Structure formats: structure tokens, C-alpha cells
Amino acid sequence: QSALTQPASVSGSPGQSITISCTGTSNDVGAYNSVSWYQQHPGKAPKLIIFSVSDRPSGVSSRFSGSKSDITASLTISGLQSEDEADYYCSSYTSNRPFVFGTGTKVTVL
Amino acid sequence: EVQLVESGGGLVKPGGSLRLSCAASGFRFNSFDMNWVRQAPGKGLKWVSFIRSSSTYISYADSVKGRFTVSRDNAKNSLYLQMDSLRVEDTAVYYCARANFRHFDLWGRGTLVTVSS
Fold first, then answer.
1. If phi over 0 gives left and psi between -120 and 50 gives alpha, with beta otherwise, what is residue B57?
2. Nearest-by-CA chain B residue for A55
3. Taking CB atoms and an 8 Å limit, are B104 and A91 in contact across chains?
């Protein structure tokens, strides 16, 4: 099972919006509305920020939003803040194995 | 408090074995599917293993299949990962993660496994 493809890095200035893509196949992202996104700060455990493509867990800022088109899912962070600087991973349910993660994206706030 | 706490990591030689544990508290453990996810130093997250709440379905990543065995004891609110024939490339922080439908909504802090001679 190959990892989902994410850009290695994305950057933006405070207040701007950025979008992270997550490209899979017709066996994972394209087959299920079961894409989730995780934020991970250095030395910390991952934290769920989006599930089921576009749903936000309670307590997660509305600045985080998700979407999906065909085999590509996207995470948008609006009103970028310094605390958003972290690594971000997508994940999808798959037809071959229960889960697969993306390659990860480092977000830098300029 | 709802939490997962991993233990059992450490330094082991190639070919050796290690057993990881994950203690769950604050929620009905026997109602949730569970997973192990690992992260090699400086690398991304990799899904390792899944076990259904009733242990009736188990799945592994190809990279660990035949070497790792996942199990759970619902009476003890605990998840386990028996790791045999360890390789240098198994070096990673191992997280247990609760599956809520098809996403991971609760993570432990992880336990570091180092495989080195």
C-alpha cells in the first residue's frame, strides 16, 4: 500500500490562507468519504483536525476546512497563525488495508 | 480522563523481540477498534496494525506482516503489539490510536523502539 502523496512543504504569511493537497487512488481517497487530517507539533502526538473529508471535531478551529474531488483531498487553513506551524498528515480508509497515511507536509508561517 | 498510555519501548538488537502495551482509560475500550501507528525518526506516520473491538478482524501493514502480532485484553482495557524478528528499520516511535469509524480520534504519547546492535 503506497502512501498518499502530499507536498513536502507549504508556507504562508500570517493571515493568509494555504491549501495542502493529498492525492491517492481509486482504492482509497477516490473510493471513500473517509479522509482525515492530523496536525503534529514537534515531539507531540498527532491530533485529529478533520474527519470524514470535511467534518471538524469539537474544539478544532473553524479556520481548518477540508474537501475532496475525485482522488485528491485538500486541507485549507484560513487566517494562518503562528501556532499553525506544524506537520500535517492526511489519512484515508482503503479497500486493501484499513488505513493509509499521506507523506506529510511541513507548514511554515513566514 | 480519556487517554491512552503506551509502554514497553526500549533498545533491542536486530533479530530480537519486544512487547508493547497500551493502557486505555476514561472510555469504553471494548467498544472501539484500535491501531498501532509508527513514526521513524524525522519521518512520517505509517499505519502498522488494526484490531477490531472484538478481535474478530486483524490486519497488518506488509512491512510487519508475519513478524508482529497485535492483540487486546478488553477485561484489562489494554492493547498489545508483540514484535519479533526486529529490524533496524523498525526503529520508530510507536503510537496506539483509537479508531472512531474510519479516523483516529485519540492518540497516546508514543513509546520509542530502537533496534540497533
1. beta
2. B103
3. yes
